[in-house]
């Protein structure tokens, strides 16, 4: 059984799952969804609108009248992946509509693929629908085409992403997401709660809260209160925790008020899990990134969080080989990681991205040096992960079951594991009475570098 690979990209969403079966004669649209969970939510919203208008959702190119490719523009490598996906869709289907983050650069896309039907930017739902209508006119059957109350989901039915805001107000030099997705735009808290309640009513056991900057939720609308709910991340987390599902917080920028979330985790209202993009630890590197440069105080904050909630799992992402990064700066990052003892870590080698201010910085790091530093960073992160998981052997922990294969082996996740980006817990036997989506107590009997194995206690 393969273990969770250390090179797994932390910016990717789970692969979209299309299970719809179109009726005979129904106009059908295919969807290729690339990039992060926020893009996956955009894909779900587009498909939900299309289903409401009578379109079928095709799981393959050949069964579709047109294909939407929801692209990623986060890194140049992601752009190349998006262009490849567009090319494949054109070759296999021929009628392609492009949307998503790379859609903010229509001339760039058309330069490579002039035959595409239309290009729209991220979260431009109406423009995507207009393009679909022009390419494939709707033909609804009001007696058959009824949209499920939960909408179209591209994730397994027992977990769902819950997007609470769009955009970002930060100006990190290596990132162009604010240019593509705009400034922070928070959803009203009561609208988020209403969506979450519907998801839980329809069987969702885990809500994964996502945005570009979860900690800043509500800042743009001055933490407005409506229908009894205040648009502040602490209040929202408390409200979501009252629904009875697991609540997992992603993309939490380490503002001081994050400490107010930790007691909610200690109480069990939300999962003891924080996904925080620290990016680096040396103050000069952080300054060149245009990010807060208080890594030492961050260590104090982490210690304070763990004193309140000892079971807290911390996941983060880092960039190695950033322009100007010296060996001494990189060593500071390794030393910081030793002290921080983060549970889950993802790492990127720096890449130039068209339009990013970091491209113009001096002293870019050679590719072979980036690779060497990535290898050394991941070696240390792997050793920390292995030691932390070994300490769980003999413990009883709750897991959620994501899959049970034909051999009866269950792939599960603990409260410390987000879908696709973290590890798994595997149950090798005794799974006969279990189902996908069950939350069960497991005795951990073996640990690896990134994954656990366990059994159902008799």
UniProtKB/TrEMBL annotation:
Q: Which UniProt keywords apply?
A: 4Fe-4S, Cytoplasm, Iron, Iron-sulfur, Metal-binding, Ribonucleoprotein, Ribosomal protein, S-adenosyl-L-methionine, Transferase
What cofactor does this chain's UniProt record say it requires?
[4Fe-4S] cluster
Radical SAM core domain location: 154-387
Coarsely, its chief localization is cytoplasm
Q: What's its top-level EC category?
A: transferase
Q: How is the cofactor bound?
A: Binds 2 [4Fe-4S] clusters. One cluster is coordinated with 3 cysteines and an exchangeable S-adenosyl-L-methionine.
Alphabetically, the GO molecular function entries are:
4 iron, 4 sulfur cluster binding; aspartic acid methylthiotransferase activity; metal ion binding; protein methylthiotransferase activity
Spell out the subcellular localization from the entry.
Cytoplasm
What Enzyme Commission number(s) appear in the record? 2.8.4.4
The record's comment on protein family reads:
Belongs to the methylthiotransferase family. RimO subfamily.
Protein name as it appears in the record? Ribosomal protein uS12 methylthiotransferase RimO
Q: Which gene encodes it?
A: rimO
């Amino acid at each position: 059984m393969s273990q969770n690979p250390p090179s797994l990209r932390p910016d990717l969403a789970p692969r979209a799952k299309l299970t719809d079966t179109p009726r005979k004669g129904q106009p059908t649209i295919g969807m290729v969804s690339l990039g992060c969970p926020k893009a996956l939510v955009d894909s779900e919203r587009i498909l939900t609108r299309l289903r409401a208008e009578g379109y079928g959702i095709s799981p393959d190119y050949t069964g579709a009248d047109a294909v939407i490719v929801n692209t990623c523009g986060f890194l140049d490598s992601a752009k190349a992946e998006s262009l490849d996906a567009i090319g494949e869709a054109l070759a296999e289907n021929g009628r392609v509509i492009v949307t998503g983050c790379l859609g903010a650069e229509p001339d760039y896309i058309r330069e490579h693929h002039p035959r595409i039907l239309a290009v729209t930017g991220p979260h431009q739902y109406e423009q995507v629908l207009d393009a679909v209508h022009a390419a494939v006119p709707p033909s609804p059957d009001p007696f058959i085409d009824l949209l499920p109350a939960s909408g179209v989901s591209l994730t397994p039915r027992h977990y769902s992403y819950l997007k609470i805001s769009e955009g970002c107000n930060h100006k990190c030099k290596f990132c162009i997401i604010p240019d593509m997705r705009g400034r922070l735009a928070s959803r009203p808290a009561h609208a988020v709660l209403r969506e979450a309640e519907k998801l839980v009513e329809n069987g969702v056991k885990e809500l994964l809260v996502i945005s570009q900057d979860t900690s800043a939720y509500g800042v743009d609308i001055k933490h407005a209160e409506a229908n009894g709910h205040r648009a502040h991340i602490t209040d929202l987390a408390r409200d979501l925790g009252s629904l009875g599902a697991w609540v997992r917080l992603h993309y939490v920028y380490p503002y001081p008020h994050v400490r107010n979330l930790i007691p909610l985790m200690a109480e069990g209202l939300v999962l003891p899990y924080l996904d925080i993009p620290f990016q680096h630890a040396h103050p000069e590197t952080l300054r060149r990134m245009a990010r807060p440069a208080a890594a030492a105080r961050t260590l104090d904050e982490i210690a304070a969080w763990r004193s309140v909630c000892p079971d807290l799992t911390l996941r983060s992402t880092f960039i190695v080989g950033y322009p100007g990064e010296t060996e001494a700066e990189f060593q500071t990052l390794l030393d910081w990681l030793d002290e921080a003892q983060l549970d889950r870590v993802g790492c990127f080698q720096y890449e130039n991205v068209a339009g990013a201010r970091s491209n113009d910085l001096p002293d870019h790091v050679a590719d072979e040096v980036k690779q060497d530093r990535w290898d050394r960073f991941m070696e240390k992160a792997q050793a920390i992960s292995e030691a932390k998981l070994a300490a769980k052997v003999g413990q009883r922990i709750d897991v959620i079951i994501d899959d049970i294969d034909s051999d009866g082996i269950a792939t599960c996740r603990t409260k410390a594991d987000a879908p696709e980006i973290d590890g798994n817990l595997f149950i090798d036997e005794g799974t006969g009475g279990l189902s996908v989506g069950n939350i069960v107590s497991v005795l951990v009997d073996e640990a690896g570098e990134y994954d656990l194995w366990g059994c159902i206690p008799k």
